[in-house]
Batch of 3 targets.
Target 1
Amino acid sequence: MDAGDERSYRVALIAEELVNPDGRGIDGLAALESAGWGVIQLPSRDYPDGVAAPLLELVAEQTEEFTRHGYTVAVIGRRAGLDEALAAYGVSGLPSIEPRSTAALARFLAAQSGRGDCPR
């Protein structure tokens, strides 16, 4: 691990529309960067289930690995099929938010900071 990497041990699974806001929405990526979190972007909600399912399986596999090693993982936004993919890897109960504002997201992230920190 790079000692200068502020994101270490905090990763957000974030809905695509919060990564690529339309100018009126929440800029989730900026909020996560400001709070020092790493990011895994979830597949677009426009993807058909057959395209999204294998991508969600990869996200779930990575999430299981992260949680097993003590990372704090949170879900920002929603993606159909994510809960099922995570459950297949034995992952449940992740903190989550469907933020209504960037400020609400920032508060949520701050509240998660101490959860599951891996010893360094």
Target 2
Amino acid sequence: MAKSRASIFGEVEQGPKLDIGAFAPKKTTDKTAPPAEQVREVSLAAQFRSREPQVTKSQQKPARAPRIHRTGRNVQFNVKASQETVDAIYSITDAHPGWVLGYTLERAVAALKRELESQT
């Protein structure tokens, strides 16, 4: 007898209907399973490499507060800059209440224009 695949669009043509009632989420935890701490100790003793990412202190940066302001500026300007330059822009903006990054950039461009005009 030739076996054919079950159609995913219709009912099973031959044989009994498929009962999937046994495939349900567990309602209780497994009482025979060892505690997570014991599993961790055994894996460390066996020198099992964890798949968890290792975060170094240099990768941990303090999170900045979100900067959401409605200013009418609607063009995004992305540049690559050194970390020192980015930190300086943020510190200047943070030092002046009410300033946003776009305003700091506008002031910096205006100051640079004045400086260049005075050199000529």
Target 3
Amino acid sequence: MNDTFETERLLLSKITLEDTPFIFELVNTPLWIKFIGERNIRTHDDAKKYIEKLMHTAGLTYWVVKLKPSLTDLGVITFIKRDYLEHSDIGFAFLPQYMGKGYAFEASKVVLNHVLKELKMHTVVATTLQDNTSSIRLLEKLGLHFEKRITEEDLELLVYST
């Protein structure tokens, strides 16, 4: 999997410990907690340990999305092989002030295109909660279609697929 991707406006780089302050901020936003889940990250040291775990987990890639040329941190794109899904899962999360500007679509699209065309994966999935309407709209804009509902850890998730 590529370490970096670049679009006209964005630079995506694999997560590093230098991203600790940004990840601390992102995982504590109300939308992250509501739609992705509480990670109990209360300090920068907690965030550092969380990143270390992400960096050393097989089948999991996190890219931090930055705005060019300022390199302002906007969000993350994830690509994860989850035990409960047959195919790898693409995900995204952005700071609230950068939502609705097309950044998540632009960043997700470059990763999705790479996975489908360069890595020749035929199917990629994404999961979301039913009330996460912005995520659903973005998944549909990316060309994913509703496939099924599943229950995982007492949550009903919608599964979308390429």
